[in-house]
Automatic annotation (TrEMBL):
Protein name: Sugar ABC transporter permease
Organism the protein comes from: Mycolicibacterium cyprinidarum
Principal location class: membrane
Domain of life where this protein originates: Bacteria
Matching InterPro entries: MetI-like, MetI-like_sf
UniProt xrefs under PROSITE patterns: ABC_TM1 (PS50928)
Subcellular location: Cell membrane
Ranges annotated as biased composition (Polar residues): 1-16
Length: 315
């Protein structure tokens, strides 16, 4: 006779057969604990950000300039239509996208290399990690000024090193974007390397040793063991850094002030709100920037589909 347990476990419609993962009590408890610990800060952040976001959304529906407070009028979604049909928006969108893709991709590769070095080195580990993290501790505006003076046409030492005469790095769009990307990579690579180092520490060493015994090459171990076990750390690093790069403002503002088609989306919002005091149009740009950030975060979460409990091996 078939045991009752066997009959029940294979009954149609059970969790296992329906394809839904079975979540253990431990995982449920950890999720509840995580919710309880983050709920107070979540409520505070919501209270702090809800009003500015809501007010910006309201202003985006109006034609409102500070120079003409009496001429405020409701225009609905017209501001969004004007922005999305303006070539300036799409040019700034392309500039922001180019900076984001280039910087994040290069930082990810360099961050892996720095993380491996910091993990494997034995002597001088503390001073080395401190030296690598120094650029990230510098204020972004200060860093932007440093790179601006380094590539200056008259007083910059980069032209002297490269034996270039009167080459204006900020006089052309792509050379200016190159310097902006270079400064971003120099400053924020330590941030990614620190996050990836935390992921590398979690990779089981016994799996690496077993793969070596089986004859796996270093490249095979990287793709089959290291990267899969670092999926959560990679997602966190890429998500944080992509959102940060997408909102870049300081470097273009300090280095080029948006000249030569180096304006980004954040710079466009600043120019509309502060320079032109067009709060209606500037708020619409800010709302679009916020929605794009939400979309990027949603795409990353859906693409990676990382469950920390699965990465840890819980059932």
């Amino acid at each position: 006779m078939t045991p009752p347990e066997a009959t029940t476990s294979h009954r149609p419609g059970t969790q296992k057969e329906s394809g839904k993962p079975i979540i253990s009590e431990r995982v449920r408890g950890e999720r509840r604990l995580g919710l309880y610990l983050t709920l107070p800060s979540y409520v505070v952040m919501l209270l702090v950000t809800a009003y500015p976001l809501g007010y910006a959304l309201v202003l985006s529906l109006y034609n409102f300039r500070l120079t003409d407070p009496g001429g405020r009028s409701f225009v609905g979604l017209r501001n969004f239509g004007v922005i999305l049909t303006d070539p300036v928006w799409w040019n700034d969108f392309a500039t922001t996208l180019a900076i984001t893709i280039v910087t994040v991709a290069i930082e990810l590769v360099l961050g892996f290399w720095f993380a491996f070095v910091m993990l494997r080195i034995v002597r001088g580990r503390g001073p080395l990690r401190t030296a690598i993290l120094i650029p990230y501790g510098i204020v972004t505006v200060v860093s932007a000024f440093i790179w601006r003076y380094a590539f200056a046409i008259d007083s910059g030492f980069v032209n002297q090193w490269l034996n270039l005469t009167d080459f204006d790095w900020f006089g052309d769009r792509w050379s200016a974007i190159f310097v902006i990307c270079l400064s971003e990579i120099w400053k924020t690579t330590p941030f990614i390397s620190l996050l990836l180092l935390a992921g590398l520490v979690q990779v089981p060493e016994d799996m690496q040793e077993a793969a070596k015994v089986d004859g796996a090459t270093a490249w095979q171990r990287l793709w089959k063991i290291t990267l899969p076990n670092m999926k959560a750390a990679i997602m966190v690093a890429l998500l944080f850094r992509t959102l940060d790069a997408w909102r870049i403002f300081d470097n273009p503002y300090v280095m080029t002030n948006g000249a030569n088609n180096t304006e980004t989306i954040s710079f466009l919002a600043y120019r509309q709100n502060v320079t032109l005091v067009n709060l209606g149009m500037g708020s619409a740009v800010s709302v679009l920037l916020f929605l794009s950030v939400v979309a990027i975060a949603w795409i990353f979460i859906k693409v990676f589909r990382t469950d920390l409990s699965q990465v840890r091996g819980d059932q």
